[in-house]
Amino acid sequence: MVDSEVLDEQAVEAADASHSAKVGDHQPGSTGISNQKLAMWAFLGSECLLFGGLISGYLLYRNNNQDGPAAAEIFDIPFTSVSSFVLLMSSLTMVLALSAITRGDHPRTRLWILTTALLGAVFIGGQVYEFTSFYREGLGYTTSPFSSAFFTLTGFHGVHVSMGIVMLMSLYFSSVRGKLKTENAETVEIVGLYWHFVDVVWIFIFTVVYLMAKGI
Amino acid sequence: MSSETLSDTVEAGMHDADHHDADHHHHPSDRKYVGIAIGLAIITAVEVLTFYVDFGPLFIPSLLLMMFVKFYYVCGWFMHLKLDSPMFTKFFVAGLVLAAGVYVVMLSASQLWDNI
Fold this sequence. Notes:
The complex is a heterodimer.
Chain A: H1 2-23, H2 35-61, H3 71-74, H4 77-102, H5 106-136, H6 145-176, H7 185-210
Helix pairs in contact in A: 2-6, 2-7, 4-5, 4-7, 5-6, 6-7
Chain B: H1 3-25, H2 30-52, H3 59-78, H4 86-109
Helix pairs in contact in B: 2-3
């Protein structure tokens, strides 16, 4: 009886060990799915409330430009379109990084992670240039309720992209040091979820803030 | 516990591991990801076109439609919501619906729609 129980425990431990070896650090919880991934999705759900508030605030104040320039006068749509395209393509390179690590192709994983971070940096550079040119044209943070709402919304998004770049560079250096193994593919996936979310938010901002400035 | 039950336990553990591992292998091919990205780029180009070409009363509806198509493809394929556990979708959609509900009420209270 006692031997049988010991055997049972050993069998369970063997099954657990096999499982851990295959899935790496992120083991499924009692729900059968990864707790870390679930936490990231819950976090992204809460981020919808943050950006929902900022977009709503912008919609409320978009026409309240007082003596400052109006949105339609100041936006440079061709320039912002290129920035949007760059961020959209960074989502592709991010998903290619995940695909590479699941295949165990570490050099390509590093290449795609670095490309994603560089595209993100190009987007941020574009935003800094845009903010600077707006300021020179007379649109400061406190010029009008419109400018405050605009800079707060796009600035918060920029901070999120910057945080994503920090996470990507952290993944890159982990991979260079050999700490990012194939079993850790889920870590890349979780950072990827954050990155794609930032892209999704920009899809909304580009449409509602920039393109609709002509119509509403 | 009999030896049969013992081997069942081991197999169950192995099956779980295989299932989780298989999660990563069921992702679409790189070719499919590139195809989706090209589609998204084309939609973005059409979106930009609406700024220069007069779409009349279809201007805002067409922009919203294209925005939602892009949202669907990024969340469904790049974020793997179409392939992963429905639990993830529920968590994300809960936040999205809550945000949409709260802010539609807030904007309605602020009479935003009257000014559009």
